[in-house]
TrEMBL record:
Binds 1 zinc ion per subunit. The keyword Zinc applies. GO terms for cellular component: cytosol. GO terms for biological process: guanine catabolic process. Signal peptide: none annotated. This is Guanine deaminase.
Length: 454
């Protein structure tokens, strides 16, 4: 039954290159948050056509369905999907000194992760990081916890309580790290998987994701065991790939029988349609081909890649090759939970890359980065059948962006706005992308439920 109608400026991705912008959009949603229709034109006609009596001149009829309408410089966009975030590292955001990946892990990351034997500490951190993500418009995230089963189950419970969709991974690692962060036993993973699956039978809110940290952390035998578990239980997989040159050389030494980094995961059977590969900065063309063939997806983490000086991933060329690409905050290699900030960084990094390659095709557009922040994320997380854009039949996971909000970092000059209504919204979207922040995220819905209302 129709219970709510979202009316006005609506922006969402149809694919990597196409944004649909409606200035007179009408999206009807049922009591379970499912989108029943999306159309343009007269609200009265739309409601009548969908069986709800509505008379715009009669205030008494308005209560039949709730109407949420954009006013001024506001627009609806789909919720962001953060496909790579280490919830456990959140206290370390902003703290990375002059490190790069391998010394950063030793100095900052492993000592903090080791402390999550204290589930109370974990709960404090996880409440903060999930709330911060929601306040930034992130309606779904693929999380790394730690090796600890109780603390990581707690992360799944907190995401569920606060209303954010989450893939939650118990990190599996057994070597080249302190003993306090080693646990690669398949029994721990089975225990974790059972506990998280018991929280949500639909799997659309919280779901376990099998998480070998990265190739150096696990033996081939362990990775094969994890791949078997993921395939038996039909669960997604996440790991890191090809982040920095020293790491890539190390993987080559550790797995001399494999052709390259991607081949390590391929030989371990870890590459499938719902495998999330974070970074993918320095892949050879042959590796990109294998990732595409296995239908695995990439999580681009531009803020992290700049912060710990990993390099610039050629994201536009991946999109042009029809490889699935999404955005990840990679907290705390990345210093912000904001996917908007990561989308902006992706734009800037693609421009720097094109300067280096001399290829203007390397430049990402605002439409490209909005896609990887939303629908691209849904595709990578195997969730595009129920979230990612405002297609009929999907769930209403959305943000109301308000550039007029008090304290907004965006100044809009009415005389500068294009007359054409669609061009006007495009102008606002560009302003938001480059200048906006979480102050502009006025409301957030997951499954049609209002989870943030500032
Ligand atoms: Zn990471």
């Amino acid at each position: 039954m129709l219970v709510r109608v979202y009316v006005g400026n609506i922006v969402h991705s149809l694919n990597a290159n196409e944004l649909e912008i409606l200035s007179d959009g009408i999206v009807g949603v049922d009591e379970k948050g499912k989108i029943l229709f999306k159309q343009t034109g007269s609200l009265e006609d739309a409601l009548l056509a969908h069986g709800s009596y509505y008379n715009i001149d009669d205030e008494n009829t308005i209560a039949e369905v709730e109407i949420v309408e954009t006013v001024g410089n506001q627009f609806f966009v789909p919720g962001f999907i953060d496909t790579h975030i280490h919830a456990s590292q959140y206290p370390n955001v902003g703290i990375f000194g002059h490190s790069t990946l391998l010394d950063w892990l030793e100095t900052y990351t492993f000592p903090l992760e080791g402390s999550y034997t204290d589930t109370n500490r974990a709960a404090e951190v996880y409440n903060k990081v999930v709330s911060r993500g929601l306040a930034n418009g992130t309606t779904m995230a693929s999380y790394y916890g730690t090796i600890h089963v109780p603390a990581t189950v707690c992360l799944a419970q907190i995401a569920q309580q606060l209303g954010q969709r989450a893939l939650v991974g118990r990190v599996c690692m057994e070597r080249f790290c302190p003993e306090a962060v080693q646990d690669a036993s398949i029994e721990s993973d089975r225990d974790f998987v059972d506990k998280v699956l018991a929280l949500d039978e639909t799997g659309q809110h919280v779901k376990p994701i099998i998480t070998p940290r990265f190739a150096p952390s696990c033996t081939m035998e362990t990775m094969k065991g994890l791949a078997k578990l993921a395939r038996e239980r039909d669960l997604p997989i996440q790991t890191h790939i090809s982040e920095n040159s020293r790491e890539i050389a190390w993987v080559k030494d550790l797995f001399p029988e494999c052709e390259n980094y991607t081949d390590v995961y391929d030989k371990a059977n870890l590459l499938k349609h719902d495998t999330v590969l974070a970074h993918a900065v320095h892949l050879a063309d042959s590796e990109v081909e294998v990732i595409k063939k296995r239908d695995s997806g990439i999580s681009h983490c531009p803020v992290s890649n700049a912060s710990i000086a990993s390099g610039i991933a050629p994201i536009k060329s991946y999109l042009d090759k029809n490889v699935k690409v999404s955005l990840g905050s990679d907290v705390s290699g990345g210093f912000t939970t904001s996917i908007l900030a990561n989308a902006r960084e992706a734009l800037l990094m693609s421009r720097l890359l094109s300067e280096r390659t001399g290829n203007s095709n390397d430049v990402l557009s605002v439409g490209n980065v909005l896609f990887i922040a939303t629908l691209g994320g849904a595709e990578v997380c195997n969730a595009s059948n129920f979230v990612g854009n405002f297609a009929v039949g999907k769930q209403w996971d959305a943000q109301l962006i308000n550039l007029d909000v008090e304290g907004s970092p965006v100044d809009v000059f009415s005389w500068q706005l294009p007359k054409d209504p669609v061009e006007r919204i495009e102008h606002l979207v560009h302003k938001w992308m480059y200048v906006g922040d979480d102050r502009n995220t006025a409301k957030v819905w997951v499954d049609g439920k209002l989870v943030v209302d500032k």
